[in-house]
Structure formats: C-alpha cells, structure tokens
Amino acid sequence: AELRKASKRLSCHKRYKIQKKIREHHRKVRKEAKKRGHKKPKKDPGIPSAAPFKEELLREAEQRKQRLEELKQKQKLNRQKEHEKRRKLEAKKNAATIKEKAEGKESSGKSKGKTKKLLNKNSKKSFCRELMKVLEASDVVLEVLDARDPMGCRCPQLEQAVTCSGGNKKLLLVLNKIDLVPKDNIEKWLNYLKKEFPTVAFKSATMMKDKTMEQATKRHARVDFSETCQYFGSKCLLKLLQEYGRTQDKVIQVGVVGFPNVGKSSIINSLKGKRACNVGLARGVTKSVQTVHLDKQTKMLDSPSIIADPSNSALALALRSITDPEGSDSADVLEGVNAIINHCSKQQVMMHYNIPDFRDPAEFLSLLAQKRGMLKKGGVPDIENMAKSVLCDWTGARIKYYSQPPEFQKPPPYLTEQKIAEMQEGFNLNNLEQENSNTVQALKHPSPASSIAFQSAGMTNGTIEENKVIEEGSEWGNMDTSKEEEEEEEEEEEFTESDDDEDNVEENDDDVKEVNEGFALVSLTRDFLFSGNERSRSLSFSLDKPADEDDAYDFNTDYM
C-alpha cells in the first residue's frame, strides 16, 4: 500500500496559539515604533507647472542623472578589472607553488609518463592530441564550415597540415547550415570554394530521433520535431565518399574537423540516420575521438574542436573560441559582442531585435535587456548576462546572418595549382555540382531583408600542435622563473597608486561636484517658488554657498 502524505492540518489549540503570538509580536513592534517617534518623510512636491524654464530644469536634471549613472558604471568596470588582475596574479602564484610541488614529487621517483596520462580531458592540449590522431588516421578529412561565415571557419594551419602531409590524403569542405543563409549567397560561396577544394552543401539535423525522443513524442503528441530532424545533402556526401572508397579498394576513414558549433557531430548523425554522437548548444561537447561505422567501406571519426589561436581578432575569438560564454570573463564577452555588433548592419540589427536606434553596443545591450526583462535589483539592466545570451544566439543557429565572399580569388600560399588538382582527383566534380544545386533548390532559404549582413574577419588561425598550446591555468608553468619574477613585478606595480590614477580620481570628484551643483540649482528654484519673502531675501546667501555644502538632489523625488 502506498504511504499517504502527512496532513498539514493543525489542532485548534495550536492554531489559536500561533495567532495569539503573531498579534503579540505586532503589538510589540507598534509599541517600539511609537517610542522611537518614527514619522514618514514628507513627499517632495517637485517643481510646479507655473515655474519658469521648468522643462529645461527637468531636462538638465535628467542629463546629470544619466551622467552620474555612467560615472558609476565606469567605476564599477574599473573595480572589475582590478579584481581580474588580482585574481590572475593569485592564479599565477598558485600555479608556481603547484609546479614546485610537482617537481618535488617527480624527483622523489615518479615518472613523467604517468603525469602525461593524467592530463585532463577538458584541457586544450588533450583536444589538440585527439585532433592530431584524427588527422593522422584519416584518408579523407571533412572541414566543416558554417555557411553564415565560411571564411571565418577555415583554419589555414589545418588545411596546410592536410595538403602537405602526403600519403594521398584528401580534404573536402562541407558547407553546413545552408538553411540560415539566402539562396544567392550560398551559390556565390559554392562557386568560390569549389575552385580550391571540393565543396558539399549540407543541412544537418539538429535533433535526431532515438529511444528517448520516441518516448517524448508518445507522451507529448503535439510536439513537432519534423523541422529539427530534417537533413539535406547526406546522399550527395555519402555517394561521394563511397565512390572514392571504391577507387581506393579499401575501408576508408573519414575525419570530421572544424571549429566549435559548426555542426561536426550533427553531420555524422545525419549521415548515420540516427543519433550516434552527442550534440549540444555548448561548445566543446566532443572531447575525444569517436568512431561511427556508416557501412562496410566507410568509417567516420568525430574529433574535438580546433583551438582558436589567441592572436586572432576579438570577433574571431568570440565566434570560434572553445571557451563557452557562460564560463568566460564578462569583459571578454562584452568585447566579443562589441566586435560582432560593429561588424553588422545597424539597421538590420535594429529590425531583427525590434529595438530603437542605439549609439554603441553598450546601449544596444541595455535596450535589449530592458525589452526582455533581464534586470538586476532596482531595475538596472543586466548587461553581462545579456551579452552572454546574445553571444550564444550568434554561435548557435538562432541568428540568420550572411557574409559575402571575397571579390578576387586569391588562394593561400600553401595551395598551389598542383595541390588543388591533387585534392580534386578521384571525385566526380560535375555530379557534385549538380547534387549541390538540387540540395540548394530543395531548401527554404531566408530572404536578404530578413537576414543580417555581416562583415567577415577572414580566416581564423588555429592551434593543432600540442606543444604550441598554452593552457590558461598552467601557462605560467611553461615560462622561465626569471620571466615570472618580471611579470610579478610588473603586475604589482600596476596595483600601486600612480599619478595618473590620482588624476582620474580627481576628475571623477569634479564630475560628482558638477552634478551636485546642478541639483542644487534645481532645489534652489523650487525653494524660491514655494517660499515667501524670507526665502527670497536669503537667496543671494544660498547662491554664494559652495556646492559641497548644499544638499545633494534626491533622484527618487524628481518629477519627470
């Protein structure tokens, strides 16, 4: 028999006792308040309608209020930067102590081979190691590109490593997410990319059916998964790989590589026809090599994402970095959103988000946070979390934007005519072009008016060799002790008060004084209008008083 939940009913004796205690408590609170003689503050009537220059005074008060808020925001950002510097300095010192302990343990008899085995799977070095395994084992490498920014998804280091490796390795480009880009733009990119590498147009399924999906559809019959489960271009890509496998007369291994969130695992799931690899909106879901057998002649190798080099622009790091926006520093996320907004058409961004005109990316985030109700305590827009949300939208498949291919075809230095011919050898390019046109025609594409025009930053440099990776947590461990000491001294000097910092503090004080002077002027005007002859006599005295002695203007009582 099932156990019943405990009843919440109380006996009358207990309920009346609780009510009595509550009445006694309220009586005690009222009595104490009466002793203190607490009175409600009188509400300020504000500036009357008959006051001269009322609108100008109110406008000036509003402007000074905004300036004070901006000043507070600047001071807050400065405090955050100082906090980040201190945090990095502490992390550096902790890393140095950890390194000393590790060296002591190694000298006591532990081998270096064991320490290498203990490498964290989430580390960048582990990602590079797994990626190199895929590149070495693959006969054909599929470089997956986001159709919204194909040039920004290309990695010159990866392409050079494949084309110059020898051993009859092939490199194919897969243009994924073509349903998010206008039809004319897709055709332009296909014509541009096919002159360098064989290119396949593809639309992967974002959600494949498995046992859990079937159970969900049975429970919720109204849920429609038809759009998310559709995929296009899989037959073309499968046919291309199978024909190449027949010419090689062996089981071919196909490696799928690319930057985060381009749809590597989704392409494998679409080719397989069911969910074989884990997929998700977060970056870096795949952490190691995964093998999926398509048929007897074809084996797919899923790989971790390419690590974007720190020397790239802020735009490239925002869209292609392996670090998830939720785990990134707020300053880096804000810088990334600023770069994205500055590389887009302003009018189209306003139409897409349905917000009024904005002066800069900070105002854009503030307006969007107010529109979506993402506010902090006191109704202040939560700009940091709004920036993370916007960045997730742009790296995912929510925003429809497109970039134009370069006007002139200029292949990279490592891609000579001989290399291009070698990469195209063994593939039926005429049949591939026909299949691509059929795939593009079968899909429903957004119009250029409903998409956002985007200016690409060009190819993104990546790190594919393990020895060139610098971990964020242990990057100090690879440096010499002399360099560590120099950096520590430099960072400590930054925390000492300099003349420039003192000047900034004085400037901030001047701004606050100016704001207080303006508020004092508004309060004087109100006093003059409400007062009699006595107030008018003392007006000259109050005007001669310095602004520091006047009371600051209360924003809460300002009538706007």
- Shape category: globular
Q: What portion of residues is helical?
A: 40-55%
Distance between the termini: 66 Å
Q: What structural class do helix, strand and pairing data support?
A: alpha/beta
With strands numbered from the N-terminus, the spatial order across the biggest sheet is: 3-2-1-4-6-5
**How many helices in DSSP terms?**
21
Low-confidence stretches: 110-119, 210-226, 472-489, 491-503, 517-522, 528-560
Please report the first level of CATH classification, the CATH class of the domain at 124-209 and 227-310 and 410-446 and 457-467: Alpha Beta
- Strand fraction equals 5-15%
What does the radius of gyration come to?
Answer: 32 Å
What's the total count of β strands? Answer: 10
**CATH level 4 superfamily of the domain at 124-209 and 227-310 and 410-446 and 457-467:** P-loop containing nucleotide triphosphate hydrolases
Annotated CATH architecture of the domain at 124-209 and 227-310 and 410-446 and 457-467: 3-Layer(aba) Sandwich
Main β-sheet, in a few words? 6 strands, mixed
- What is the CATH T-level topology of the domain at 124-209 and 227-310 and 410-446 and 457-467? Rossmann fold
Mean pLDDT reading: 77
Structure report:
With 560 residues, the protein is of the alpha/beta class. Among the domains are: 124-209 and 227-310 and 410-446 and 457-467, Rossmann fold; 314-395, Orthogonal Bundle (Conserved Hypothetical Protein Ylqf, Chain: A, domain 2), CATH 1.10.1580. It has 21 helices and ten strands. The protein has a six-stranded mixed beta sheet, with helices on both faces. A two-stranded antiparallel ribbon has the order 7-10. The longest helix has 54 residues, at 54-107. Mean pLDDT is 77; it is low at 110-119, 210-226, 472-489, 491-503, 517-522 and 528-560. Residues 1-118, 470-516, 536-560 are annotated as: Disordered. One of its GO terms (molecular function) is GTP binding. It comes from Sylvietta virens (Green crombec).
